[in-house]
Amino acid sequence: MYFDKQFSTFFLGSNNDEALLKTLEVSLFKSSTSGKFNSVSDKLNDFWTSNFIENVTTEQMNSENFILALSQYIRSKSINKDIVIKLLERNRNSVVKAIRQSGIIANADHCSWVVLREINNQVDFLEFKDFLLTVEYIQLQYQERCNAYKELKNQTQFDQVTAMIFSSLYACEYLILSPKSIDSLYTKIPYQYGVEEYIPVENVWKAFNHIITSANIQKKEFTEKTLALIFKGTMMPFVLGQNLNDKLINSYDSFKRMVACQIEINLYRDQVIDSYCFDLEKNYHLDNNQLKLKSSSKEPDLFSDKLTILSIYWLYRGFNSLEKSPYLIQLDKGVNFKANLEALAKTQGIILQLEEVYGIKKADFGEVYDLSTLIFTMLMIQAHFEYNFVQPFKDMARNAEMHPFIALERLAIKGFSEGKDRIPLNHAKMKDKAISMSDWILEGSGNSKKREMSRILDFWSQDLREGKSSSYGEKSFYKLDGYMFSLPWVTFQKNFNTATINTFRKLYKNRASLKSETDLMEQNLAGLLAKCKGRVYSQYEPSESGVGEIDAIVVSEDKILVIELKSTYVKISVKEIYEYRNFVLKKAAYQLSRKSEYVRDVFLPSLGLDSSQFSIHSWIVDTTLEFDHEYIDGFLKVSFEELVIILNGHKQYLSNMMDNDNTNKNPLSGYEENLEALIESVEGNTFWTTNLSLISSIQESNNASPLKA
After folding, report:
1. Digit-coded pLDDT (tens) for 48-73
2. Are 101 and 278 in contact (CB under 8 A)?
3. Residue 226, SS3?
4. What's the CA gap between 562 and 618, in Å, rounded?
């Protein structure tokens, strides 16, 4: 058996514990292993029927990698009852953790539950029985929520346009005018589960998108007439206060219930089921048939504040590079000049972020687009919605303290008198929209500009005929039979840094240009590290097979830095976050361990250097903020953007911006001039400690800070 041979080889050079650890790492992280088996199931069966499994101890079963490997086995199509029973006899806690981490709690029909219930009937393990009862309760609660939503959906039978109309009315009534004292990223909604708690606004957007994309699809193609009838019968009674009957009011009320129900489903899946599955520090138990949470205390990850700091940084960089944009001289210098200028600065910042962090210099998705125009179009639309709908609506409703729908009526009538569309669901024929926006294309004839803008609008749109809802965070518009629809509030609130990154790295993750982008990332990293006045070896190919390319090595007088560089998208769920940690970051740590050993034992001696005279520091550098400045299997994980800021000499940019109160200044602070200073700064977490304290003080003194990204 393959894994028995691996274990025996490792055992000859070490001891039982180390041999098991190394065999687990091969099973989990060595990519070439899978090629030795016909299927994943064959690989897992080979591992778990190996002779060394018979001798694993209770203590060995506590290891993170053992639990992770067992979770993969539990998730497989066929598990051996006898193997699981033997493992339960030795360490029930670790087996329970493995079942949790397998993720099958989210799938009540998974085939492993049949085996696990058979085991529960066969043996008498109290902890195991209690765990299964807890799982059954969680699954039942989730199913009840799903059934409640299905019942509401069957009762209402909304079509997609009606769902969009109700979403837009809901945004005006409950989201745009949320209390000033509460962060605009959080809100309360009608029929909300857990009435006292504020929920992330993004959860409302996600619910809108699910309801819209899964609503009934009209078989006949939409026309101007059919759309006009829907708007006249569904939206205008609320906006104008005419012909508003009980049936329509009840229908809108049912929509509100659907939103609350769908949000609860999403939150329960993410914050209860997936958190229980993947965050092993969270423990649920039943107390008088009520679910109770016991969670180990841990430091908050401060993800949101860190993301704000990075967003401000790229905006600052964008303002400082405005003169490089060909759009600058084309901007309307009228009343919207400030908004347009900020949209352009955001565009420039996103372009710099894509190139310097992700190695992306062009927008090639099979079809090629101009990167600047692709991004600038969205940010101009965002600015348009803010200054021509969202802000006027806020001002009108708050200043007169009127009901949101009365404010909508006055805004719509004012818009009609000025020949402008001011109703809360923005819609137009795509070809008309492309014509009206074609002047934003800088080059080409009039017709070519219209065609190019049509392509761009189509790129950012979800086709409702396809019924897909996975891209709500990236795609800003809905497309239906030649018409384009958008919810101004959702577009206004969107973080286009994240949306653009996830478009490249998530929606189009298999692009042909990905390899060249990874190469550029590694070259960018080498260029930054060269500022440390050490010798930099980039994309180094070791002489020994099986080690793998080393992304960066920096050699100074007495210190060595070894870096493993990883790139991904911005995660939106607990499951995504932990699976990335367990299978990408932990694999990076495994690779970095071998590469660091190679640098110590082979690379340095090949340069005529004595390894014992050097302090070797090894980092996982990654494009996400999750698990930032945590140690993954002994290796520090830091964000690439932190290195970009520090090594560009910008680590004090935020404090200097506050002092100068001018984002167009060039607030530089000297970068670390040697490797020792860089290592001390990063491993001491100086950048985040300083700037998190600063951003906290800014937010406390001004909740509506203009720097809020």
Report:
1. 999 999 999 999 999 999 999 999 99
2. yes
3. helix
4. 5
